[in-house]
């Protein structure tokens, strides 16, 4: 296998005309073999500049630096609404057929945060479905969430963990982490962001993305984990990254991937080892002291993005709405749901030293290191504590105010929503709003507008 270098990458980019790809080419990208990684170059640090608050009236601010004392408890917003109807039926999670020699460990009552039973996935608190899942590396795939032409996305339902976080323009993007399951189709896949540089060491992960601005691109090339970065920008083309050929979508929203083929590339590079990631704790029994919470609304202070989770007591899962409409998977047609919702409060700062080529604006950095307030939602209850992470190290920890008692997630899937201090835009309610009526009203309005104009919407500049 040939040595992979920056010169090779530049030649690939020149020949390919940037990061653009041809529609579903039949040959794979260059066969790349890792060499001894260089010494990690620390990210430059500048005095943080707080991002100017949005024009909305800000919530009261307590402090931007949480300490190990109970923080402000939100007052639930009581909004009468009809009973949750038309509950989506969750799709049975497909699993690979176990090999004859595979014997999963028995179900554990408590898992983590430092020790995990043999054959248990530290991302879910459940046994690996097969030996292949146990032996492969955590895989982060960047997935777009704006504009609405990218919805419904594919493959988010197969992820063990999904991070949703703010990018430029007050819209959100996803970092989906796969291990127990894979997805034949995931996307649309978009560019890397500063926060991804924290998530990779946090989860000892591979990173799959469409491309990145010059600053992030150069950082990855200098990182000790550069061989774990998979991108057309680095010469990894189709498979696993292929264009869908959809002529009704802007070109940048047509890139999709296959996680199994991504793991194959990592195997060729000899970086597809199963790694143990510490920090998360799991128990089927909720912690004591939880307060009822069945409706969670997160407003990212723009008209383009909000997120809602609603608890369904019939199956103990939280169902997701995106900008007022049910958020479904493009492959299954089922509404996205999860076992845990965790909201993390983190400082957002401007990085004037980094200019993003997509929007020609200053990049936002989400400071997911140190400590911040965390809210855990599970089994129709919510719990308040803190998150902790040492920059560049393995592990994301959730603890209570005493600093040592772990917050117990429900075994299964988890979505993390990252917001600004002090829990900016978060409203928690003990009753549900009528999301079905809201979605129908939005759909009816959109239909009327389209019928009246009979024109296509103008292209939108996307973060």
Concise summary:
This protein is of the alpha+beta class and 463 residues long. It has 6 helices and 30 strands. The strands form 7 sheets. Strands 7, 8, 9, 11, 12, 16, 22, 25, 26, 27 and 29 form an 11-stranded mixed beta sheet that branches. Strands 17, 18, 19, 20, 21 and 30 form a 6-stranded antiparallel beta sheet that branches.
Characterization of the model:
The protein has 463 residues and is α+β, with helices and mostly antiparallel strands. The chain has one domain (107-431): 3-Layer(bba) Sandwich (YerB-like fold), CATH 3.50.90. The chain has helices spanning 6-16, 131-135, 196-202, 214-222, 259-268, 435-453, and strands at 2-3, 32-33, 49-50, 110-111, 120-121, 126-127, 139-143, 161-167, 171-178, 186-187, 206-208, 229-230, 241-243, 255-257, 281-283, 291-292, 295-302, 305-312, 317-322, 325-326, 337-338, 340-345, 348-356, 361-366, 370-378, 381-389, 397-399, 408-409, 414-419, 426-429. The strands form seven sheets. Strands 7, 8, 9, 11, 12, 16, 22, 25, 26, 27 and 29 form an eleven-stranded mixed beta sheet that branches. Mean pLDDT is 76; it is low at 1-107 and 445-463.
